[in-house]
Each structure stands twice: as C-alpha cells, then as structure tokens.
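> forwarded from #structure-qc
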C-alpha cells in the first residue's frame, strides 16, 4: 500500500512539473525573480517603474548608471559594441525578455504545444509571441545567441507592430532584416549585433520573460534598460529610483566642480578629493541658487543630502 501511495505521489509531482514548463513565465515566478521590488506591478508580474522615473533616467549617462550599479555589487549589467539604427536617440523602458536557441524538432513540438495551451497565436512564427504581449513603455530584449544569417528576429512588419504596442524598440543579441524599412518607422529604434537579408531559419523561441544573457549582461523581466550610443545597461527595477537620484546629484556635483575650477576658486586636488566643510557649504548654497530646474524635488534632494559625506 505504501509503495502504491508513494508511486501515486511521484506521478502527481511529475505531472505538476510537466505543467509548470511554460513558454511564458508565470506572474508568480516573475514576482519571485523580482522580489525586492515593493511597488506596483503589471498583470504579468513585472515591476511597473513609473513613466516619470523613466523620463528622468533618460538623462543619466551610461557611466553614472554603471558606477551606481557597480557600487551595489552588480557588475554584469552592461553590454556594448552595438549597431544602432538611430545612434543619437536614447531609449529607456521596462524589459520583456525572450530566449532563442538553435532548432531541435522535439523541443519545437513541446514549445508549440505549450504555447497553444497558453493561448499564444498559432499563425506565423513563434518569434511573434513576445511582440503580442508588449505594452506601452516596454522594450523587447532578446538573446538570439549572436546569429546573423538566418537569425533575423524581425523585419519591418514586426517592427511596426512592436512600435505600435510599445512606442519603443528592441535590443537583440542577434540580427534583424530590412534595416532600411525599420529605419523608416518614426520613433522606433534598435540595438542589434548585425543585420542580414535572410529570413529566420533553424532557430526557435524557448522562453518569454525568463532570465536571459545579453552578451556579458544578465537581464531579468521587469528590469529597466537605459540604451544609448555608448551601450546598454540593464537596471534591476528596485534600484532605479536610487540610481536616478544618485546619478542626478553626482552630475550636479560635477557641474558645480567644473564651474568652480573654471572660476579658479579651488584647486583641482580640492575638488577631486574629499571635500572640505567650506566646499560642502558652498555646494549646498550653489544648489539653493541653481539657475535651472533641478531634476529632482527639493524633498528628494534634502533627504538624499542628509546622509552624504561630501
């Protein structure tokens, strides 16, 4: 009797495990991956970083963002050496991830059946599935394992669909086709490793909104991406607010320091080392009379400066 009970338990566990192998990650799994985020979420479980914070992030330099992440122990969030459709346009957004692999017939069958069970479209290729779930402010980020010929994840038709849904673009560790057509989509942008006129072939989608690798960066669904002509950096959602504020204050410090050096009020060594009490006081006074609009609220600035030792 005990053996039969144990066998039944194993069968139940096995069937549960099989059902758990989704193409798209469940909201519960995404919440587990992003457990440090305490704010609002989308229905799919991804953190919903505010549009206002995304707008501020767009003004942050890659170097400043990288420095904040590095100081917090996140050393593998940057990837460079991209081909960019519109190099002088920056892009920020909330990440939707997709993983691609070389084709394997038995695994393709599993993916297609599971996709059907999840209600995903059965017409066209599976490379349309990540696009179907995009919402405004999303950036479609895919690991195409660097495949160029026969590895083109989108052309201009899918590019138009992506922009219509997200008002953003894509970041592909792989290739696209019809760059000329993609470049004509106003507002769309793409960070890619290359382009080719071929169609996607011998390549399959294996997951949506699971952790992926993009070059030397580790990317989770719900990360926020800052992409510029100098590279792309992927930021854990729960760190975005602190990263933006820290970077904004650092840029104000740099602006103050550069101005005072031009005025020859301080020596280079005084600005480049730990500030004296007189310089700190001068900086705080300078902030009170800042000629433009500060990027943060006065309350945010006051709270931030309380614990700083400049």
């Amino acid at each position: 009797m005990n053996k039969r009970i144990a066998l039944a338990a194993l069968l139940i566990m096995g069937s549960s495990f099989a059902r758990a192998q989704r193409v798209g990650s469940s909201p519960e799994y995404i919440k587990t991956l992003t457990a440090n985020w305490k704010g609002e979420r989308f229905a799919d479980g991804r953190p919903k970083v505010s549009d206002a914070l995304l707008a501020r992030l767009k003004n942050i330099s890659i170097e400043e963002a990288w420095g904040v992440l590095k100081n917090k122990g996140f050393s593998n969030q940057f990837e460079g050496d991209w081909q960019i459709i519109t190099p002088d346009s920056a892009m920020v957004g909330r990440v939707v991830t997709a993983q691609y692999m070389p084709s394997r017939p038995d695994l393709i069958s599993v993916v297609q059946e599971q996709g059907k069970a999840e209600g995903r479209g059965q017409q066209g290729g599976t490379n349309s599935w990540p696009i179907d779930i995009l919402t405004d402010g999303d950036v479609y980020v895919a690991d195409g394992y660097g495949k160029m010929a026969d590895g083109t994840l989108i052309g201009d038709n899918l590019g138009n669909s992506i922009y219509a849904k997200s008002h953003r673009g894509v970041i592909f560790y792989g290739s696209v086709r019809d760059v000329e057509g993609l470049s004509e989509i106003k507002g769309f942008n793409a960070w890619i490793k290359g382009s080719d006129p071929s169609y996607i072939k011998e390549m399959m989608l294996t997951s949506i909104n699971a952790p992926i690798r993009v070059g030397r960066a580790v990317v989770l669904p719900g990360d926020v991406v800052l992409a510029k002509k100098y590279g792309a950096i992927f930021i854990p959602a729960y760190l975005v607010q602190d990263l933006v504020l820290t970077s904004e204050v650092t840029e104000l410090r740099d602006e103050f320091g550069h101005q005072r050096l031009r005025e020859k009020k301080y020596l280079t060594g005084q600005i480049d080392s730990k500030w004296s009490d007189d310089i700190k006081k001068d900086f705080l006074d300078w902030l009170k009379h800042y000629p433009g609009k500060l990027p943060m609220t006065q309350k945010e600035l006051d709270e931030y400066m309380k614990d700083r030792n400049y």
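QC bot note: The longest strand covers residues 91-102. Residues 241-306 form one domain.
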